[in-house]
Amino acid sequence: MSSTLVAPVLPAVPGEVHGEVPGVAAPRPATFLVRLARNPSALIGTVVIGAIVGVALLSLVWTPYGPVTLSSHAMAGPSLAHPMGTDEYGRDVLSRLMAGARVSLYSGVFAVVVASLVGIPAGLAAAELGGLASEGIMRAADLLFAFPALLAAVTLAAALGSSTTTAMLAIGIASVPYFARVTRSAALGVLSSEYVLAARAYGRGRLAIIRKHVLPNIAPIVLVQSSLLFSVAILAGAALSYLGLGTPPPSSAWGLMLEDAQHNFLATDPLLSVWPTLAIAITILGFNLLGNGMRDVLDPRLRSRS
Fold first, then answer.
1. Using 50, 70 and 90 to split pLDDT, how confident is the model at 3?
2. DSSP of 33-85, one letter per residue?
3. pTM for the full predicted model
């Protein structure tokens, strides 16, 4: 005679979620950094950026040769002594590329800092104040949209002289509207949430709400915008140096290296153009991959689809 085994019904334990095994903790949702590490685009971008930053830091204390040191080995091809050859003045190309990484990273940092210090407070003010104040701030951002970054760079170069700082100041000012719009859009979503309305009813002031509720929630979105602007600033800095509006010679900026090689030795020694072009492309690719990865991780639609 067959018998049917019936599992005993265990009494409910207060505080215990139905379906969980007693004594075994439920798995916690993955944190932002863990999800970022699992994203291939973000992981590759982080590795690339880490390598560029490492090269830039290393160039502060060591390069194979002085980046601006002249020698008699002009236009030498790749060799054990000079793995990437030398330029028309006998300067080591590898040493100049390493030093140029510092210039490019400084360009990105300076432009992002300028744009964020102006654009983020403007976007927060527009979202919090609303009404005519919001309209005035956003119309001012539209005016900046209509002012080309190249024209701003020319104006600042004429007034202050050509330098990396003046070129990136122009790029940062031109990028303020992007930060203002992104910040305002993200902040409006947070300010309309129920917990912010409850905080207002509790009597919290505007600055306290922005500091404790708005900024932590919009920080990842602003971080994505910063990574994308970083790549734009590096490309714009190289282009302005190429045009003579950015870093002046004899600096080791990648744009200057590309300008010298393309105008004078593109036909006779194309490798001189290849090295700075690869450096610019790889750096921009790294920041774009990181930005795309962070976007995928932060966007709930893309995260659920993956």
1. very low
2. HHHHHH-HHHHHHHHHHHHHHHHHHHHHH--SS-TT---S-TT--S-SSSTT-
3. 0.84
